Amino acid sequence: MFWKILVVLIISMIPLIELRGAIPVAVGMDLGLPEWIVLIIAIIGNIIPVPIIYFFARKFLEWGAKKKWKPLKQFCNFCLKKGTKAGTKLIEKAGDYGTYFALFLFVAIPIPGTGAWTGTLAASILNLDFKKTVIAITAGILVAGIIMLLISLGLFKWLF
User: Fold this and answer.
1) Which end of the chain is more exposed for a tag (fewer CB within 10 A), N or C?
2) Which among 3, 2, 43, 51 is positioned nearest to 23, based on CA atoms?
3) Cα separation values, 143 from 26, 31, 52, 83, 139, Å
4) Confidence of residue 71 (pLDDT cuts 50, 70, 90)
5) CA distance 27 to 18
6) Which residues 6+ apart lie within 8 Å of 105 measured at CB?
7) What is the spatial distance between Cα 22 and Cα 154, in angstroms, rounded to a whole number?
8) Are 132 and 99 in contact (CB under 8 A)?
9) Which residue range(s) make up the domain with 114?
10) DSSP 159
């Protein structure tokens, strides 16, 4: 049972896959874990990288933007400029709490590329408040996890 839990935990920590992939894999492979355990483990695994990304992503990008190796410098500058430009527009339009609600929605909608990793990276680049960021992303992870579990169990079959 430990190894099955570890598989779900690790898959849910992988960028772009996150719990959006961990839950369907666990349910589809019929690992023998109760669904509520799969959901909890996937949520925990998806939350674990959030503080690490928040505190180190911007530092890494700023560090890389100063390096002489051209591909790294270009990539880091691109991420910083693009992220800051898009984020500044959002903050101006949405305001303080609207920004965190948008972050919540971005993470909660379970489509590829919109998860805790990307949301936390954006929050880090924009220097958003850590506590508010964690609350918004955690809430988004919870909603995305429930949606993915329901989809994986086939409870939305009647929609299609």
Assistant:
1) C
2) 43
3) 18, 23, 22, 25, 6
4) very high
5) 15
6) 140
7) 16
8) no
9) 2-159
10) G
Residue 1 burial by CB count (10 A; 0-12/13-18/19+): exposed, middle or buried? exposed
Looking up tokens 């984020």, which residue turns up? 87
Q: How far apart are CA 65 and CA 73, in angstroms?
A: 4
Q: If you search the block for the tokens 């929609």, which residue do you land on?
A: 159
Q: What's this model's pTM, rounded to 2 decimal places?
A: 0.87
Give φ, ψ of 112 to 5 degrees. -55, 135
Amino acid of residue 6: L
Q: Please write the tens of the pLDDT for every residue from 104-157.
A: 999 999 888 889 999 999 899 888 999 999 999 999 999 999 999 998 888 766
| Total domains present in the chain | 1
The residue assigned the tokens 């990793």 is: 117
